[in-house]
Amino acid sequence: MPKRDARVDAYIAKSQEFARPILNHLRKMVHEACPEAEETLKWSFPNFLHKGILCSMAAFKNHCSFGFWKRTLVLDKKTSAGKGMGQFGRITSISDLPPEKVLIGYIKEAVRLNEEGIKVPKTKRRRQKVLAIPDSLKEALKKNKKASASFEEFSYTHKKEYVDWINEAKREETRDQRLATAIKWLAEGKSRHWKYVNC
To answer: DSSP letter string over the chain?
Structure first.
């Protein structure tokens, strides 16, 4: 019996109407290809596990995504270069996915890779750029320990999203409003684009 997670049921139920059949189809394909697969929520969206992460799916406001953890080993280069989070582009209907037989083949390949302990070859890490944080944000973070702790734990990309958002404001009033909102969200541990995680 597949190990289903009630949180995945809830995730699908609260997704947009167009997304529900897509997510249910993907879920069915994973369990058909790997009956032992376990479900969980990671990064606020459904993931499927079998001796490690196999794949994940997510629903947004106007599309869904589906992708493999070891995408470069599961898919060819052309397919694995999908835009966004998944490798199959913006999925708006089941017809945007590969045929069932092909999709099950991909999932079985992901299972094989995990069962054999095959890892994705590491790529050389590029030297991280130093992020120029505006003085106003530095000062505001000093005054709020929770916000400061969240900001420090965030990746370079998440930090940059906040910095760019504040810097892009053309008027001082807008900049001040964004700064106040940023500190509030950071104190709650939220990334800049937290609203879109489960859209």
So the answer is: --B--HHHHHHHHTS-TTHHHHHHHHHHHHHHH-TT-EEEEETTEEEEESSSEEEEEEE-SS-EEEEETTHHHHS-HHHHT-SSSSSS--B-SGGGSPPHHHHHHHHHHHHHHHHTT--PPPPPPPPPPPP---HHHHHHHHT-HHHHHHHHHS-HHHHHHHHHHHHT-SSHHHHHHHHHHHHHHHHTT--TTGGGTT-
